[in-house]
Amino acid sequence: MMTGKAAAFAPATIGNVGPGFDVLGLAVEGLGDRVTVELADAGADEVVEVTGRDAGLVPREAARNAAAIAARAMLDRLGASKSARIWIEKGLPLAGGLGGSAASSVAGALAAKLAAAGDASVPELWILEAALAGEAAVAGRHLDNIAPCIYGGLTLVRSVEPPDIVKIPVPADWWLALVTPAVRVETKAARAILPKAWEQAEWVQQMANTASLAWAFASSDAALVRRSLDDRYAEPRRASLIPRFAEVKAAALAAGALGCSISGSGPTVFALAETKTLAQACAAGMQKAFGEIASTAHVGAISRSGARPA
């Protein structure tokens, strides 16, 4: 006997936002994953169907599926002695640098909560921790995608253990251009090439860039964004994983971007612009710079809301 069914949507996110490695995250309007959870009185958790972008690459085994793991974690937290049947509609690529595993995890956790508890209020921390269980199984234990996916806008992860999230106001109506080339960059592999130790002068500058960028968003200081959206840590080491990255970044800046860098682990490259028109020009220039390498583009506003019922 089926007892509850609900769906949730979770938006795409940009992890790091340039210099804020594992700390800053930004939600993007217009792209995301949708997960439906239906509760059953008997049986094991089951991923019934996966459709959409890169659907064929998403694990069907519930124990290996981020959305299913997150849904199970949420049901356990709620004390719901039910199994879950799960449908996933992927709007985000796998290993694309747009927070695909985080979106599926957050949507899975929220859909499970809605199916089991309806509109009843639960701590947002429960959603975050359940989603982190799914994300950790796929991409590692970090919150820079999960936090903006839940809260929307720009977020700062002050701590993972215990979770401590700072929501940074973004009053300016800035836009984003996201261009994803047809190459794949696995998050775990992209993290493995980064050094564990770093020169003091470099991390001091990186810390200054991250703090300045957060203030630039909060104060709508476009000039400060231009100076601060400068990643000295991950971008120089991951650029080689993205063909023609230097040319793509140069094209975005030439088209009027406030800044341009790698979205999360890549291969998506993002540009931040002051208007939709400028963001569209950035996207066109970036795609042209990729040359013969096929790519997809999305132009969207900063998503002011995070995951929500669908």
Brief synopsis:
With 310 residues, the protein is α+β, with helices and mostly antiparallel strands. Helix content is 37%, strand content 26%.
How would you describe the overall organization of this protein?
The chain is an alpha+beta fold. The protein contains ten helices and eleven strands. It is globular.
Helices and strands, with pairings:
Layout: E1 2-15, E2 24-40, E3 46-52, H1 66-78, E4 83-90, H2 100-117, H3 124-138, H4 146-151, E5 154-159, E6 164-168, E7 175-181, H5 187-192, H6 200-219, H7 222-228, H8 234-238, H9 245-254, E8 259-262, E9 269-273, H10 276-289, E10 295-301, E11 308-309
Parallel strand pairs: 3-4
Antiparallel strand pairs: 1-2, 1-11, 2-4, 2-5, 5-6, 7-9, 7-10, 8-9
Helix pairs in contact: 1-2, 1-3, 2-3, 6-7, 9-10
Q: Can you write the helix and strand succession as a string? A: EEEHEHHHEEEHHHHHEEHEE
Say what oligomer this is. single chain
Number of strand segments: 11
Distance between the termini: 23 Å
Mean pLDDT, as a whole number?
Answer: 95
Keywords for this structure?
7-stranded mixed beta sheet, single chain, 310 residues, alpha+beta
